[in-house]
Design goal:
Rossmann fold, globular
């Protein structure tokens, strides 16, 4: 295995660590060229972005359907797809140039992932992509807005996993009422990757406690790109 792949990445990705390495190479070259990743982020791609995203997989059940809202350069959806090929993942992104990038990445890495263009808050998008067991979002919006956008995409008893930083506790206190109003249960702050990565990923987990909107049916079939 490539010696440039960190030990933590080998633990998280196992025999698929080389695929994660390919993703890092794509980000460091084409990702920077296309303005998806800042040049200063290149040296931090593994720790700050790829592993930070991938360790969240420990909170996702086997075979779950996952919608990654606002995937951007591919976080956390692409690392999750590499680490967990058993997952049925949809990458949802509103910007055309990022959708093009995500589609190229999925094809290049041969990932069983669906890429969709759209915004989580649009009813037509919600009907098109249906509900999921887990919805993920990283650096998309404050918790109040994120709950309004994402919880309708979560099936009842499913969960929204919002990757947050140091502001997680502050956001939970400030936006708790908005989360409940959007159909979420009590927000729980969890740490993913403890004992594996130097800086565990802070995640706010919110269970969907209300039924989904009419006409949004859950489909379990895996869609290919």
């Amino acid at each position: 295995m490539d010696s440039t792949i960190p030990t933590a990445a080998r633990l998280v990705f196992g025999e698929r660590a080389s695929i994660a390495g390919e993703f890092v190479e794509l980000l460091a070259s084409h990702g920077v060229e296309r303005g998806l990743i800042g040049p200063r982020e290149v040296d931090r791609l593994w720790d700050r972005h790829v592993l930070n995203s991938a360790v969240v997989n420990e909170r996702i059940p086997m075979g779950a359907r996952v919608i990654d809202v606002g995937s951007g350069a591919g976080f956390p959806g692409v690392p999750l797809a590499i680490a967990r090929p058993d997952l049925d993942i949809v990458l949802l992104e509103p910007m055309a140039r990022r959708v093009e990038w995500l589609s190229e990445v999925v094809d290049t890495l041969d990932l069983p992932v669906t890429v969709e263009r759209g915004r989580a808050e649009e009813k037509v998008v919600r009907r098109r992509i249906d509900a999921a067991d887990v919805v993920t979002a990283r650096a998309v919006a404050p918790l109040a807005r994120l709950s309004q956008w994402c919880l309708p995409l979560v099936r009842p008893s499913g969960v929204l996993l919002a990757l947050k930083g140091k502001t997680a506790a502050e956001e939970v206190e400030r936006d708790r009422a908005a989360v409940h109003k959007a159909g979420g249960g009590e927000p729980e702050i969890i740490r993913c990757g403890e004992g594996i990565v130097d800086t565990p990923t802070t995640v706010v987990a919110i269970e969907r406690v209300e039924s989904g909107p009419p006409g949004v049916a859950r489909k379990r079939g895996r869609k290919k790109h």
